[in-house]
Amino acid sequence: MSSPRIGPNSPFFIVLDAGSGGEDAAEARRAIEEGCTAAGRRHRIFLADGPGRVQALAREAVERARAVGGVVVAAGGDGTILAVAQATLGSGCAFGALPQGAFNDFGRTHGIPRDTAQALQVLLSEQPRAAQVGLVNDRVFLANASLGLYADLLEARETRKARDGRSRWTAFFAGLLTVMRGHRHWNLRMAWRGREKDIRTPTLFVGNNPLQLLQAGAAHAGAPERGALAAVALKPAGVLAMPGWLVSGALGRLGDADQVLSFSFESMTVKAGRLRQPRRVKVATDGEIGWAEMPLLFRVSPEPLWLVRPDIAPELEAAKP
User: Fold this and answer.
1) What is the greatest pairwise CA distance in the chain?
2) ∠83-174-49 over CA atoms, to 5°?
3) Helical (H) or strand (E) element with 289
4) What is the three-class DSSP state of 296?
5) Rounded distance between C-alpha atoms, residue 29 and residue 45, angstroms
6) How many beta carbons lie within 10 A of that of residue 260, not counting itself?
7) pTM beyond cutoff 0.85
8) How many structural domains comprise the chain?
9) Lowest CB count within 10 Å: 3, 74, 91, 128, which one?
């Protein structure tokens, strides 16, 4: 499918997450409306003001955008961007992002500022460019997908964030407490590129965000820019060894850790390594926790997300060795 083209008359259909913070959402809405009005750009805002509303409104936004050659836009945190991207993928519509999340890994990877007014200028001035999407079974992920300990870390981070606010140190200490409580080891059989390997691991992480992988110092960090995904699995380790892995990731030295197995792939099947395997497992996609049927199929989506973004992402380029 060729890239959709957008022009000054292409309307924006914007799904805005009101749950990302009352004042932040109100301020974002003002910036969007003032910026679009000043540019003479037609737009409609779909305000997601309740649990589960983002998915339904994203589908409606896609239907309306397809009918008139418009752009589907996600305004919110990682969960909102993920849900709207899932609805937009394969529709033929251009996709835009006005990131509201604290970390903004997706936006920084693609040169999209967190400031709403600045991000809107990207949306008004740039054209869609192909952005790789990962799939686990049929679920989209833009940054990463994981099972095991890393998914547990994300749950712990969200719980601590609700109590203490969001920061990288909050995430780090939530992770430290989680690994010190102990963890389950998974017996997995992974098949990719004609190979099979049985591993025992506390966690399997699949990355699709080169900036995130570079900042962690992961091997194969450039895989997403070469049409592949990066797998990171920890070798079995005791509770006392796990904080060292957490520190390595926080300091950007994950690739130097002896207990880390990593490789790149385009498609990988993951099964339980024993005859009896669970029917479902907990899987995190871009920080959103859900359940997926086994076996798991991780793969690069055959269709890209046509993301409106600059040709160059300065922070990503600066992070490369």
Assistant:
1) 63
2) 30
3) strand 288-293
4) strand
5) 8
6) 20
7) yes
8) 2
9) 3
- Which residue, 292, 316, 314, is CA-closest to 118? 314
Q: And the tokens for 133?
A: 């999407």
Least confident of 13-17, 79-83, 237-241: 237-241
The answer to whether 309 touches 126, Cβ cutoff 8 Å, is yes
Provide the token pair at 192: 């990719």
Same domain, 148 and 167: yes
Q: Is residue 1 part of a domain?
A: no
What are the tens digits of pLDDT across the range 46-77? Answer: 999 877 899 999 999 999 999 999 999 999 99
Q: In whole angstroms, what separates CA 90 from the centre of its chain?
A: 17
Q: Chain centroid to CA 132: how far? A: 11
- Do 143 and 80 share a structural domain? no
Residues 117 and 52 placed together within one structural domain of the fold: yes
Q: Which domain holds residue 235?
A: 139-300
Give the residue from 140, 31, 131 showing the smallest Cα distance to 75: 31
Give the pLDDT confidence of 226-282 residue by residue, as tens digits. Answer: 999 999 988 765 544 554 555 444 434 455 556 788 999 999 999 987 656 678 898
In the chain, % of residues over pLDDT 90: 62
DSSP summary character for residue 2: P
Q: Which residue has the tokens 């006005």?
A: 98
> Which residue in 252, 265, 271, 272 sits closest to 300, CA to CA?
265
- Give the type of residue at 177: L
Answer whether 175's CB lies under 8 Å from 246's CB.
yes
Tell me the C-alpha distance between 197 and 195, whole Å.
7
Same domain? For 144 and 293 the reply is yes
